Amino acid sequence: MAALNLRFTDEELDALRKRAEAEGRSMQSFAHDAVIAAINEHNRLFNEAAAHVLRASEELNRRLA
């Protein structure tokens, strides 16, 4: 498995530590899941936008075909 080193300010690291502790999780697990959630949210937003464009241009695309 590949590794990634991230840099945080002291304040960011402290906030990360506190959030992870509040959830009873390791900082690594908490940070990993946060990154995966951000990736998934980006993909969801992209897919929503693509679906919207397809719906909005459906009639035009039908007439151009």
From TrEMBL:
Name of the protein in its database record: Arc family DNA binding domain-containing protein
Domain Arc-like DNA binding intervals: 4-29
Annotated GO biological process: regulation of DNA-templated transcription
Annotated signal peptide: none
Domain of life: Bacteria
A GO term, aspect molecular function: DNA binding
Organism: Streptomyces antioxidans
Record Pfam families: Arc
